[in-house]
């Protein structure tokens, strides 16, 4: 996984020979796969739709989501890919929705048509919810759509999962490493879904475990840090923005455009392959997908210091010990301290209704002293993936802030 290895174009890799980012010859539309994206208006789903639409990779593209495109805060570049022509509003966790979601009009010769690739980008994305919420909105959704995909002979079912299923460890975790202590409840139910999907007869499953996904319009992990930094930047007198735990804490990353490319490569590879090379036939097909940066909190602190012109640092051992024992109390204090300032900044900037996904609100689950460190070498070797955004940099993060400004989310 070292940075010195030759970076090849993934579309030249033998695993990418069928539709792996290379457009099919004109007139071959019928031979391009029909594609279904569950959770197609979510953060990763919309970028996957854009990748497929821009590169004309599919004969049919259908996005399914519970919310409407008009309410999804879509940037202008997504309007065509996520248009009403491609969109179906449905709750994919419900069995009675499956026929509407999966049925396609017959082919010109009258024969039945089915989707070739199904990408499950759906599920509950909020943290700190009750188990029942994840069970219904993530676990049940995965199983219901997986069973339908198997019944219809779908050629590749790509389940988007998370690197937070692994036990926290600073050493990069491989696909067979321990998963007895997932970081979050969301990860716990994602792991349960992975395991149940693997038991569905005939399902051509491929699981992709991703770290923190960032990029233009990102909320969650990166958006929270940037909103916090903006609050600190606005304060007089200046204060140091401090992280808990330490600079070495692993917070591995993947750019959302690379996530979309990886998913397409995974589907084209899975269509042609029934098992991982040099492994027992019973081994589940699971890949970690990660950039080359081995991102840490220390790197993020340096980037934020450079962009915002504020001092950054880390709490001392005493504060960290207190936080371990009283995390809820600490998080509540930080949120109380920053949310009003953020609201004032938004008001001063004239941002009244739509602030997009941005907020300095910290989630207790994401603030635990837990390394997120994954090894992506299996996916690189087997499928031929190379990230185009090799690491998170100042320039990458400045690009994210520019995307907020375009959407008028940034105070």
TrEMBL record:
It holds the Pfam family Epimerase. SUPFAM superfamilies: NAD(P)-binding Rossmann-fold domains. Residues 35-271 form the NAD-dependent epimerase/dehydratase domain. This is NAD-dependent epimerase/dehydratase domain-containing protein. It comes from the Eukaryota. InterPro entries: Epimerase_deHydtase, Lipid_A_modif_metabolic_enz, NAD(P)-bd_dom_sf. Residues 1-23, 165-186 are annotated as: Disordered.
């Amino acid at each position: 996984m070292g940075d010195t290895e030759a970076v090849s174009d993934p579309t030249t890799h033998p695993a990418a020979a069928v539709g792996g980012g290379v457009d099919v010859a004109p007139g071959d539309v019928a031979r391009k796969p029909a594609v279904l994206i569950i959770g197609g208006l979510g953060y990763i789903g919309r970028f996957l739709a854009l990748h497929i639409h821009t590169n004309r990779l599919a004969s049919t593209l259908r996005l399914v989501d519970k919310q409407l495109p008009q309410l999804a805060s879509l940037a202008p570049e997504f309007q065509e890919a996520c248009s009403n022509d491609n969109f179906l509003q449905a709750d994919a966790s419900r069995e009675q929705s499956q026929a509407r979601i999966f049925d396609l009009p017959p082919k010109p010769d009258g024969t039945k048509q089915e989707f070739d690739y199904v990408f499950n980008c759906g599920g509950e994305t909020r943290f700190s919810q009750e188990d029942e919420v994840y069970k219904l909105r993530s676990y049940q959704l995965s199983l219901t759509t997986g069973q339908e995909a198997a019944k219809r002979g779908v050629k590749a079912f790509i389940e988007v999962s998370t690197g937070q299923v692994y036990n926290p460890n600073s050493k990069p975790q491989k696909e067979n490493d321990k998963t007895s202590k997932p970081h979050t409840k969301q990860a716990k139910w994602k792991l349960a879904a992975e395991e149940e999907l693997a038991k569905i007869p005939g399902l051509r499953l491929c699981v992709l475990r991703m770290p923190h996904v960032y990029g233009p319009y990102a909320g969650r992990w990166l958006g929270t840090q940037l909103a916090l930094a903006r609050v600190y930047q606005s304060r007089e007198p200046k204060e140091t923005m401090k992280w808990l735990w330490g600079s070495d804490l692993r917070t591995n990353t993947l750019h959302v455009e690379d996530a979309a490319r990886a998913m397409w490569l995974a589907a084209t590879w899975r269509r042609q392959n029934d098992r991982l090379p040099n492994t027992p036939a019973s081994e589940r097909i699971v890949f970690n997908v990660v950039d080359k940066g081995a991102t840490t909190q220390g790197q993020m602190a340096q980037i934020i210091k450079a962009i915002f012109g504020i001092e950054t640092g880390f709490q001392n051992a005493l504060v960290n010990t207190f936080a371990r024992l009283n995390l809820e109390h600490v998080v509540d204090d930080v949120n109380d301290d920053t949310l009003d300032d953020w609201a004032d900044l938004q008001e001063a900037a004239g941002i009244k209704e739509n602030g997009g996904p941005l907020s300095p609100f910290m989630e207790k689950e994401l603030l635990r002293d837990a390394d997120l460190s994954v090894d992506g070498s299996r996916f690189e070797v087997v499928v031929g993936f190379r990230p185009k955004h090799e690491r998170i940099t100042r320039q990458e993060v400045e690009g994210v802030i520019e995307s907020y400004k375009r959407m008028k989310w940034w105070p």
